[in-house]
Structures are given as C-alpha cells and as structure tokens.
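Pair request: fold both.
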Amino acid sequence: VRDCIQKTLTEWSSKIGQDQNQETLEVLECTVAQAIEKINPEERDELKVSAKLFIVGSNSSSIRDAVDLACSALGVAQLDSVIIAPPPVEDGTNLSLEYLQPYWKELENLVQNKKIVAIGTSDLDKMLLEQLYLWAQVKPSSNQVNLASCCVMPPDLTAFAKECDIQLLTHNDPKELLCEASFQEVLQESIQNVKANKWIPLWLLRYSVIVKSRGIIKSKGYIIQAKRNAS
C-alpha cells in the first residue's frame, strides 16, 4: 500500500509542477489516469467488482464517499460487493454492535440505493456476527476471518454461517493497513513543500475486478482519501 501511494504521489507531483501552491486548494485529487482502467459497459455483466473498505478515521459518512469515488474511478454504476473492516476503537474498548451500527446503516442505504449489491464484514466472532445479523435489515453476505488468528475456522462461527447462508472467507490483512504516521511519512517523501503532519487519512479502499467465468483478476488497486487539518 505504501509503495502504491508513494509512486502515485511522486508521479502526480512531477506532472503538476512545483509552481502550483497546493496549500491554497481545498481538494487535491492525486490521480495517475493511465494507471486506472475503466470498465467497458459491454463487459460489465462478465465482471465482478468487489472492494474492501478500511476506515482509518472513525466516521461512518466516509463510506458513501468511498463507494462513490470507486464507482467513478472504475466507470460503473454499482459495486457487486463491499466488505468493511472494523473501524478503529479506542484503547481499552471492545468492538460492539452499537459501535458497528452507524457504519452498517450507511452500507444498507447504499444497497437500497443500488450502489452496492452485497455487503459483508471482517473479523467478527460468532457472537458479534449473530448480533449484527439479527439486527440488520440487509444481512451480511460474508464474513472474513484472519488467517493469523486461526488455523481452523471456529466451529460455532462455521455452524452459524452455514445456518444463515453467510460465506466465510479468509484474509491476511494486518490489523492496521495504513497508520497516520506512515501516510504522513510517504507524503513528506513524495511531494515537496507539503506540510505532511497536517494530513490525516480517512479511509482506504482496495478494489478488484474479477472475470467471473475464469476467476481471473483483471485489475486491482487502492483509493485513499485524506483531509488536511486547518490548524
């Protein structure tokens, strides 16, 4: 992730030139156009577009921004599936249904507005997955389990998932895919005269475009959004 961000920022920075005063702009859109392959509408039915969303700053409204930007970048009207990684909780606080609810409501709204087809979760144990399933209007279609946390799927989780038709998937993502300090460091290295310590990452979305009939990844990439503190 860090290498992708650094390469994009470095190439973008060299193209816009250093005469542009970035500090005066409200929004910086750092995109290398040739690196993103838009989906041909004629091929859309043959492809599955899936994404995993990592919320860095705990703000549920970021979900809509992330999905809208992903759809725009790929040239599609909707994403086939979105899995959300549990947003960060404060030290000493356990992840709870109450904490997840505003994020899940945002995902449900996007399903109802036909921006997403299916929504899923990551790293929920059987108790929390069951609580979410019973409460949610739009049920989770999948739950990712970290390979580092278990060699064998927990039997109670497996039984519940089978009963409720929830697909159990595995992943090996680190608990924190991109921390604030790492993002600021790569920003400082990539763009001259930027006050990196003012920038805070909000979310990171990893997408993949898969050819359904062959199970081949056609393209994949990352989209990240950060904000600059005024202070």
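--- second member of the pair ---
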Amino acid sequence: EDLGMKHRLWVYSGRRGVHCWVCDDAVRKWSPALRAAAVEYLSLVKVGVLGGEGGGAAHLAWTDHAVPPRHRELLQSEFPKKRDSVQRWELLKGRMERTRKVTGSGKSAPCYADWEIMLQYCFPRLDINVSKGVGHLLKSPFSVHPKTGRISVPLDLQRLDDFDPFAVPTISSLCQELDVTGDDTEQDENEETEMKRRMR
C-alpha cells in the first residue's frame, strides 16, 4: 500500500512461504533496481544478522549478537545446564523481563534482546532475487510444490486465521479423487451403453 500497489494476489507456496503476485501495470514495468529498492524498503530484518543460520550453536549466537555484554556471561554459563532450547529460551526471556521490571531504579537499562530475537527469527523474509528479477521463474497458483506435493493455493485475506496449510490438497489426494471420479464415470458409461443396446 505504501508503494501504491493495488492489485495483489496472495498465494500459499505449498510449503513455508507465501507469494504476493502484484498485478499493477505500472509495477510490472519497474526496472530491477526499482524492484530491489521496493524489497529493501519492505525488509525489516536482514537475514543472518544474529548468526546461527542453520548452525548447531544458534543458542550462543543469540547471546553473541543480541544480548548486551552485562547479561551475556551469565547466560553463556547457564545455557549448557539447560536440557533443550525451550529451557534456554525461558531462561533468556526471564532475564530480559527482569531488566524491564526494574527500570527507573537506576541499576540498568531495560533490555529487549528477547523481542529482537523473536523479530529476527519470526518476521517474514523477502526473497530479493525473486522480486527484483523480471525474468525470474515464478510458480503459478495451483502448481504443485516439488517437495511437499501440496498445491499452491490463493489465500483469502479475510479468512486468513482459518487457513490450515496441512489441509491444502496434495497431488496424491487429487489423483485419488480423479481415480474415484474416473471409476464412477466408467460405470455410468457402461450403464448408458447397456441401456442403449437394450433400446436398440
């Protein structure tokens, strides 16, 4: 909306993503540089800023990049004692919440590292290459996702909370439906042929 785009079609990718097809004439004529600038404008988080992308030490990356040094040492000594990432997250969150409760006491400034981490890992990431390349291959709505077999379906933004990605049809379920329909059709055709033969 900030960029004046009016005609948008939101499509579930069939896996984890969502595609926004912008169909405005003016936007379709944008240069790759203008497209890249639009994606940059819409990007709140830069990928990999906190580190730990796919690495086994992601929990340490939290403390290295998002947590101020005054809290880092305690967390790094306590993290290995925790059984899993859920417990580590609870430890970090509790520590950050305590810093926010004691504001105004002059001890230390409030810390929002837990919020920053959630933003980094949960905010949607935009694929700049798909967006800026005018010749980039796009998946069409109703195509099949090659890894999940799910159908890429348009999203109804008015009923987005009702959308269940696991309820989306798969290529296997569609083939089964077609087989059942095909059997019914063959049976109908056989009955019709038999009736015509009798009538003759």
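Observation on the second member. The chain has two domains: 1-43+126-191, 69-122.
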